[in-house]
Amino acid sequence: EGWDQPGGAGAGGALRAYVRPASRFREGEHGPAGAQCGAHCGDLQVGWRRADDGLEEPVFLDAWVRAKTGTADTPPLPMSALYRVPRRATFSTHALNGASVDADSGSKRADRVYMSAPFVSSAGADTDGTLFEAHLPAGERSRFTRVSTVPAPHQTTVDVAPTGGTLVLFDSVAVPHEVLATGAGTRYAMAGWFHEEQQAFPQWFSSAVITSDDE
User: Fold this and answer.
1) pLDDT digits (tens, 9 = 90+) for 16-51
2) Neighbouring C-beta atoms of residue 189, cutoff 10 Å
3) Where are the extended beta strands (E) located within the chain?
4) What's the maximum distance between 2 C-alpha atoms anywhere in the chain?
5) pTM to 2 decimal places
6) What share of the chain has pLDDT > 90, as a percent?
7) What is the CA angle 114-17-153, rounded to 5?
């Protein structure tokens, strides 16, 4: 009791979260628009896009994009692409050296607007966000920031003191966070995570071929 108070049990050790004003959820003639932060249909959020109204829209990484090769006897290319789910969802494809995103996967991509052409994503290559940014059109690059960016425009800092009986729930992917140093006393915390089910390999992936240039 009395945390952060004179003579209390302790001081400091607050959970600090950096939150953004995300776009509002609205129902309209085109159904629900916008997406929850963190993940969408199993795709992880990797960034934020500043909308025209100043609010932030989550940007997701589709790691199972089937890029058409343009020939019937050549397997599709497994690639990645960035997309958002706008408040009035539409569908679009982007060209890639004469190829395009294969849109035959039904409702999975029906509500998406792809922001980038398909690209080969390498593990650990986007440590500072520049790889993602490089694949965005010039007009979108200034709108994009990665989820871990601190500080960021319109970001608000929220501190939660470690008082007994406090439960904090938040999306740890979309909300950068840290624990401040404990100045006095002992800070006790119990943390847990809920994970979405991992995406299954698409059926077409077994026929895809990745060349040495794509690795």
Assistant:
1) 999 987 655 444 433 344 567 888 888 889 999 988
2) 10
3) 11-12, 15-19, 26-28, 31-33, 39-40, 43-50, 56-67, 77-84, 95-96, 99-100, 113-114, 144-146, 156-160, 177-179, 182-184
4) 76
5) 0.74
6) 15
7) 55
